Q: What sequence folds into this?
């Protein structure tokens, strides 16, 4: 009987014969190689070979009897029975005919690669693994850098035995799988020399929100086990998937540098368990990104091809979880594994689940911070566990705090209310299991086990974007579930105010028409934190300021390129999240005191008595002391449109005092490659000064529309400082402010140009929202938390106005 199948002989329909991993490898090797996706060759030892091995060694009845004695909730029993089963399999005899077939296939691989003893990965491939609703990744063992027939045969027995690791037994019980109904195939695949380069994991979906239009890539130096197991904090990259098909695009919308302090390399030994080791990564390499732009895009293209293939094969949406590796000898990129994503693909995004802390910002004390997994909040007492042997000390409802979790922890992870780790990234096995269990996790905190005390009351928040926060104490929070299905459509477009790229993917699921206000200030403050002139004049700065800047720009060598890259990535993430819906990006509008608070800013900014009425908005852009800074801003925005392929971005110019000033800014934009009308670029004016409304037609001669900033318009109309605690009762509902609003709205509608409002007032005052709808505002931009409430108010207002005129530019 034949117990071996070459990758070229199997496909995705052969899971029962060769298991999920081998079926997928064969599918890709046979079908996708011609499309440019590189998959190392290999062969499968079939599930029938596993059954034959057990029968040959008279193990079937023995295993069945031991399993019947098992209480999976008793960790001692699980460890004892699992150990007995593994030992009986591992020390069995390999049947001679099966041994000969394995050796023959290995020798074929040696001939193909021109090596006497090729280095191979020997991985498990269970017949029940990697289903759309359950991931068996990491439940059985994998062994790397195995060479020679004797080592290969002994390693195969170890892999057979790993079907009964403690974690695999527990996982099957929790997923409802019959142990006797699962068999094990083995994948024997030529190693990619990523020990000399890099490797990682990528998903064709955002793992935290389920946003479909990105490829999420993680990368670290050395063999990929460190990323999969969470031993290192990898680099992270997001690529905008739809733009991959456009020529001459580089749609990398986000990069985040990981610490990558260890890498797994080969040893001189080629036996299972002794063939690899971890070594420190040079500090200079830790401070550098693992992948080049070209490599990032190549991997994303591979991922998109793989996803398309499996979607067509299954005739349904099928996001993928993919492992990749770079060969340090040939510099080629390879795919070494692919399986269905098992959490977000099963989520119902018509049910919008929102967790919200019920405390003021100044009442929250951050204990630790890392990368959020899930969008939930949980609380409990800390259980600090430093070694896996003590994991059984975890009790129900406690917050598990540890250095790292791996598949061995699976039997106890379901007890935790939340998980906090020092190490690991969002694609590590612990993160995958946490998502499946539906509990929040914060990974890669660095020093959580030192900062958190045993028994300390904690609140774990993964509901604030990409960053997860461990807060001191049991903080109150609320959970809302909102059904987004069947919501009526309003004639008035409802858009969102979104400044934080970290929440953009999540906010994109709300029923909005796009983003009415994306402010650059949030991105510049939080992602850069440095005055742009300090970056331009870096060489002239004192050593201490240079040190502070270099600390912020880790991973980048050129200060100006750092500013452009970080700004373009922040804007790109926002614009990609809502594509193809419009995103109105307001050019920077920092006041002098706000710029002065940035690193290096105090040396460049004037000391103004009233910064709100001073050196801000449009007047800055062409001022001699700022025009070079504005050029960097324009480079970043041009990159979003041209390189990232995000043509749904619209620009908005703030605080334009005169028509001449507006014309001058448009000329400057054009000089910097952002010409109004070119490639469909629209430029709006932020209508926030009385002059803008009073001379609306003159301004509209040069701009494509108005976005009304009602906060500044109110202050400047009524002569009040809204930040003053003394002056009260002055807001947008004042008749003078409303008169100016009507002038601006009517001018835009009369000229067939866009008019919307992006201030806070519609979120705060329902009657003001009614007023705007009654006067034919085309769009209202709201904070995400008030969108659904305001939608009902807009609907009711429109229903009271059956003859409401259809506004232009719908």
A:
């Amino acid at each position: 009987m034949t117990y071996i199948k070459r990758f070229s002989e199997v496909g995705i329909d052969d899971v029962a014969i060769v298991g999920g991993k081998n079926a997928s490898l064969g599918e890709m090797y046979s079908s996708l190689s011609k499309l440019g996706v590189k998959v190392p060759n290999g062969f499968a030892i079939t599930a029938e070979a596993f059954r034959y091995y057990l029968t040959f060694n008279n193990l079937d009845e023995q295993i069945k009897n031991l399993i019947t004695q098992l209480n999976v909730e008793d960790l001692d029993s699980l460890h004892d029975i699992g150990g007995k089963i593994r030992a009986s399999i591992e020390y069995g005899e390999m049947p001679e005919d099966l041994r000969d077939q394995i050796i023959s296939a290995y020798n074929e691989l040696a001939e193909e690669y021109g090596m006497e003893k090729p280095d191979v990965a020997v991985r498990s491939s269970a017949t029940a693994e990697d289903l759309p609703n359950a991931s068996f990744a990491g439940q059985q063992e994998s062994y790397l850098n195995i060479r020679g027939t004797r080592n290969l045969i002994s390693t195969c027995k170890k892999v057979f035995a790993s079907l009964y690791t403690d974690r695999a037994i527990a996982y099957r019980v929790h997923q409802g799988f019959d142990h006797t109904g699962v068999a094990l195939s083995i994948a024997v695949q030529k190693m990619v020399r990523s020990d000399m380069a890099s490797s990682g994991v990528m998903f064709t979906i955002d793992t935290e929100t389920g946003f479909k239009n990105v490829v999420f890539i993680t990368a670290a130096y050395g063999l990929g086990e460190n990323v999969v197991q969470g031993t290192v904090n990898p680099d992270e990259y997001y690529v905008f998937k739809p733009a991959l098909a456009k020529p001459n695009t580089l749609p990398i919308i986000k990069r985040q540098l990981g610490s990558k302090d260890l890498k797994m390399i080969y040893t001189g030994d080629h036996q299972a368990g002794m063939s690899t080791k971890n070594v420190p990564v040079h500090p200079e390499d830790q401070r550098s990104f693992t992948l080049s732009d070209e490599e990032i895009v190549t991997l994303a293209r591979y991922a998109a091809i793989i996803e398309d293939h499996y979607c067509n094969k299954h005739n349904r949406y099928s996001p993928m979880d993919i492992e990749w590796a770079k060969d340090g000898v040939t510099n080629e990129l390879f795919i070494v594994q692919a399986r269905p994503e098992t959490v977000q693909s099963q989520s119902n995004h018509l049910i919008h689940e929102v967790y919200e802390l019920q405390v003021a910002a100044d009442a929250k004390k951050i204990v630790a911070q890392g990368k959020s997994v899930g969008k939930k909040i949980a609380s409990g007492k800390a259980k600090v566990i430093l070694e896996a042997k003590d994991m059984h000390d975890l009790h129900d409802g406690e917050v598990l705090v540890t250095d790292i979790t791996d598949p061995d922890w699976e039997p106890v992870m379901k007890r935790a209310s939340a998980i906090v780790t020092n190490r690991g990234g969002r694609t590590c096995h612990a993160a995958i299991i946490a998502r499946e269990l539906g509990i929040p996790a914060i990974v890669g905190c660095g020093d959580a086990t030192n900062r958190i005390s045993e028994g300390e009351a904690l609140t774990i928040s993964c509901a604030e974007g990409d960053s997860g926060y461990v807060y001191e104490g049991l903080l109150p929070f609320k959970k809302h579930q909102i059904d987004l299905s069947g919501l009526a459509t309003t004639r008035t477009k409802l858009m969102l105010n979104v400044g934080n790229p970290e929440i953009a993917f999540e906010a994109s699921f709300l029923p909005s028409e796009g983003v009415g206000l994306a402010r650059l200030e949030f991105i510049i403050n939080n992602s850069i934190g440095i005055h742009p002139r300090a970056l331009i004049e870096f060489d002239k700065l004192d050593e201490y300021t240079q040190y502070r800047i270099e600390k912020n720009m880790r991973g980048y060598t050129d200060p100006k390129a750092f500013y452009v890259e970080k700004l373009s990535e922040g804007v790109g993430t926002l614009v990609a999240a809502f594509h193809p819906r419009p995103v109105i990006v307001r050019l920077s509008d920092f006041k002098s005191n706000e710029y002065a608070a940035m690193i290096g800013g105090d040396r460049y900014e004037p000391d103004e008595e009233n910064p709100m009425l001073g050196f801000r908005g449009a007047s800055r852009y062409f001022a001699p002391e700022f025009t070079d800074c504005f050029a960097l801003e324009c480079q970043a925005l041009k990159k979003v449109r041209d390189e990232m392929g995000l043509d749904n971005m619209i620009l908005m110019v703030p605080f334009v005092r005169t028509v001449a000033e507006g014309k001058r800014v448009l000329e400057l934009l054009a000089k910097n490659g952002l010409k109004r009308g070119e490639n469909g670029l629209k430029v709006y004016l932020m209508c926030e000064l009385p002059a803008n409304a009073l001379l609306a037609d003159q301004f509209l001669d040069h701009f494509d529309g108005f976005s009304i900033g009602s906060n500044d318009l109110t202050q400047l109309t009524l002569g009040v400082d809204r930040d003053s605690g003394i002056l009260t009762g002055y807001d947008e509902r004042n008749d003078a402010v409303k008169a100016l609003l009507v002038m601006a709205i009517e001018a835009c509608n009369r000229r067939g140009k866009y008019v919307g409002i992006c201030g806070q007032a519609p979120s705060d005052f329902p009657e003001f929202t009614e007023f705007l709808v009654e006067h034919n505002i085309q769009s209202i931009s709201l904070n995400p938390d008030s969108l659904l409430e305001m939608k009902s108010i807009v609907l009711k207002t429109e229903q009271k106005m059956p003859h409401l005129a259809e506004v232009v530019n719908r």
